[in-house]
Amino acid sequence: MSSSRALALLAKMTLAEKIGQLVMVAGTHTVTGPVAAPDLVLRVRQARVGSVLNLFGENETQGLQEAAMRETRLGIPLLFGLDVVHGFKTIFPVPLAEAAVFDPDLWERTARAAAEESVQVGLHLTFAPMLDVARDPRWGRICESPGEDPWLGARFAEAKVKGFQSPPHGIAATAKHFVGYGAVTAGRDYAPVDMSERALQEIHLPPFAAAVAAGAAAIMPAFTDIAGVPLSAHPGLLHGLLRERWGFDGVLISDYNAIAELIRHGVAADLADASALALKAGIDIDMMSPAYEEGLPLALERGQVTIADIDAAVLRVLALKERLGLFDTQRRKVPKKDALANRQALAREAARRSIVLLSQRKPVLPLKPDQIIAVIGPLAQSRRDMLGSWAAAGADDETITILEGVRTALPNATITFARGTAIDDHDASGIAEAVAAAGKADLVLLCLGEACHMSGEAACRAIPELPGCQRALAEAILDTGETVVVLLSSGRPLMVPWLFERAHAVLATWFLGSEAGHAIADVLTGRWAPSGKLPVTWPRAVGQIPIFHAQRNSGRPENPADSFTSKYLDLPNSPQFPFGHGLSTTQYAYSDLRVPEGGPLGKPVNLAVTVANTGSVAGEETVFVFLRDIVATVARPMMELKAMAKVALGPGERKTVALQLAPGAFQFFGLDGLWTAESGEFEVLVGPSADRACCLSARIRLS
Ligand code: BGC
After folding, report:
1. Which pLDDT score is estimated for 618?
2. Of 381, 404, 403, 382, nearest to 391 (Cα)?
3. Are 378 and 542 a contacting pair, CB within 8 Å?
4. pTM of the entire structure?
5. CA atoms of 373 and 413, how far apart (whole Å)
6. What is the tens place of the pLDDT at every residue in 38-71?
7. Which residues surround ligand 1 with Cβ inside 6 Å?
8. Concatenated DSSP letters for 78-137?
9. 255 is known as an active-site residue
C-alpha cells in the first residue's frame, strides 16, 4: 500500500525525477575514506540519484543528504547503503566462520551490533545477509555464505534479517544474491549456472524464503544466469516467485552494473533493452549501471515499458525510504557512541566460538602457560588478513594479531616469532630462521593460510591449497619433530591432507575479525573449549567437489568390494571432515535417543536425546538432527539437516536435550511441483556431525 505522501510525490515527479529514484551511485574512496565526488554531488542536486552506496561518515552523508533534501525540487531524501556483511567498524568473523557457531542468537546479536554502528555513520541499508548455498570451495564467495546447507541457511537468514532490522537502530537488510549463485560452473565466479528445478527449490531457494518471511526489506538478484536466463532479467523468479507467490513487497536492488551486463550475457541488444528487461522482471534500483538512467527513457518511447512499470518501482523505493524514517529526520534515532567494549566482547565471543578444532593427533591443548613457544608463519602478525573479505570500516590498527593475542594471554611464556615466508610468494629464504626458532621451542604455533583477498568476490582458486611456499615452510617445521599446532586462516576449506596427517593439531581459524588474536588465544589457553563445527563438508581433494552431506544414495552406492559402484579409483568418497565436524578438549557421549514410533504428518515431532560431557572441562556442544525419507516417489538424500540445539555442559554433566522436527522437515518438492510429505518410514539421525557412524538412529512412521 502506498502512502499518501508517496502518491503525492509521485504525482509531482517528472520522468527524470522518477528515474532518479531508481538510480544508485557509488561514492569514491580516497586515502582519507569515502567521499562524494563532485560529479555525484551534482547529480544529487539534479535529482538524478535516489540512493548511494559505499559512502558513510556523519559529515559525508549529511552533506549529501542536505543537497538532496534542500537543493532539489521535491526534497526526497537519499538512501545510503553499504556492504555491512560481518560488521561495520567492529569486525566479526566472516559468515562461513560465524555459521560454524550454529547459534541463531549469536548471529542476530552480531547483526544488531553491526547495524548500530552503521546507523551512527548515516547508513540506512546493508547488502547482507548473503544467503547463497555454497558447496564448492573453489568459489571465493563461499566465505561470505553460511555454507552448504539450505536449512542452516534459512536459520541464518532469519537471524540476520532480524538482527540487522531490529528497532530502534536497525538498518534495512538485503538478502542476496537471489538465487543459485553458489552453483556457478566449476566454482568460477560469475560463470553460468545450470541446475534442476529440484535443486533450485530444495537447496537454493529456502534461505531466501526464510529471509522474505522474516521481513527482509530488500533483495539483490545475482549477477549470474540460470539455464540462460540472467537473474537480473528473470520475470519467472523475480516477479512470479518473489513478488506474486511469496508476496515480497520490498525493493529489488540490482547487483553492481548487473543490468548493463545483460548486454554481455547476450539477452539485451542495448541499454534500453537491458533496462526494460530488468524493470519488467521487477528490479527497482539499478546499482551502478547506466541502464536505467540512459536506457529507460528510450525503452518507454519504444513501448518496452510503461510509465506504470516505472511508477510501481518508484513507489516501492519511496515506501522503503518512509519505512526507514528518512523523510522525518527527527524520527531516526542514532545510538550513543558508547558500548565499544561491549562490541569488542561480542566480537571476541563470536570469534572464539567460530574456531573449529579440525584434527588432534595428541592432546596438546590447552597450552602450558610457562613454556617456550615459537610463533611461526605469515599469518601470525598480519592484521588486515584477520578482518576477512568485507572489512567495511574495520581498522587494521585496531585488529588483534595472533602474535599479540598469544603474548597477552601467556605473559609467563617465552614467545619468539619468525615469519618464515610471505603468504603468497616463492621466497623461501626465511625458512631456515623459522626452523631454528622451532628447534629452540617447546611448541610451535604455525600460522598458515590465505590472505583475506584470496577469498571473497572474484577470488576463486582452482587449487585451494596453501599458497606460495607455505607447504615448504610447514614441512620443514614438521620435520624438526617439535610439537606443532597449526592455525589455519582461510575463507574456505583448504585441501591439505598431508598437514592433517602430520601436525599434532589443526584449528580452522578462518578470518575472525577485530578480536581474532584474543579469540584464538582464548581457545589455545583453555579459556574456551573449542566448540565450532563445520558448516561445510571439507574435501580431501578438488576432485571430490561438489561434496556435501545431503547426497542421494544412487542405485550403486560406494562398495569397495564391487567395482561397478559409485566411487573413485584413487580416493575414498568420504570427505576429509564431514559437515558438522569439530573436536574439542572435552568429549561428549550421546545416548537414549527418544523418537515416537509414529504420528500424523503435518504435526511437529518431538524428540529427545541425552548428551553427557565425559571430559574434564566445561564445553558447548551442537546437537544435529538429520532426516531421511526412506522410500518416496522421489529419491531423497541419505541425510538432511532438519533441526539443531546448543547445550552447555560442565565436566561430568549430562542433560536431556529436547529437539523438534517441524512439519515442513518431512516435505520435499514433489513431482507435481508442489511441496509434499508422503506417509511412510523416516530415519532420524541425531549426533555431533553428519558422520553417520557417530549418530544415534531411530525410525518413525508418519501417516
Ligand atoms: C557484489 C555484491 C555487493 C555489491 C556492492 C557486488 O560486486 O556482488 O555482493 O553487494 O558489489 O558492493
Report:
1. 98
2. 382
3. no
4. 0.98
5. 7
6. 899 999 999 999 999 999 998 999 999 999 999 9
7. 53, 83, 127, 176, 255-256, 457
8. PEEEE--SSBSSSBPPPHHHHHTT--HHHHHHHHHHHHHHHHHTT--EE---B------T
9. yes
Copy the grid coordinates of residue 375.
610463533
Report the 3 state secondary structure along 50-72. Answer: CEEECCCCHHHHHHHHHHHHHCC
Cell of 146: 553460511
Which of 56, 126, 256 most suits a substitution to test ligand 1, by most atoms within 8 Å of the C-beta? Answer: 256
CB atoms < 10 A from the CB of 194, how many? 12
Instruction: Read off the amino acid at residue 229.
Output: V
Catalytic residue among 83, 103, 149, 255: 255
Best probe residue, ligand 1, of 255, 259, 390, 460 (max atoms within 8 Å of C-beta): 255
Q: How many Å apart are CA 687 and CA 68, to the nearest integer?
A: 56
Total Cβ atoms within 10 A of residue 517: 27
At 172, list the grid cell.
Answer: 534495512
Whose CA is closest to 232, among 199, 198, 266?
A: 266
- The mean pLDDT of the chain is 97
Q: How far apart are the C-alpha atoms of 586 and 651, rounded to whole Å?
A: 8
CA of residue 593 to ligand 1 center, whole Å: 45
Q: What is the mean pLDDT of residues 154-176?
A: 97
Give residue 182 CA to ligand 1 midpoint distance, Å. Answer: 14
**What separation in Å is there between the alpha carbon of 110 and the centre of ligand 1?**
21
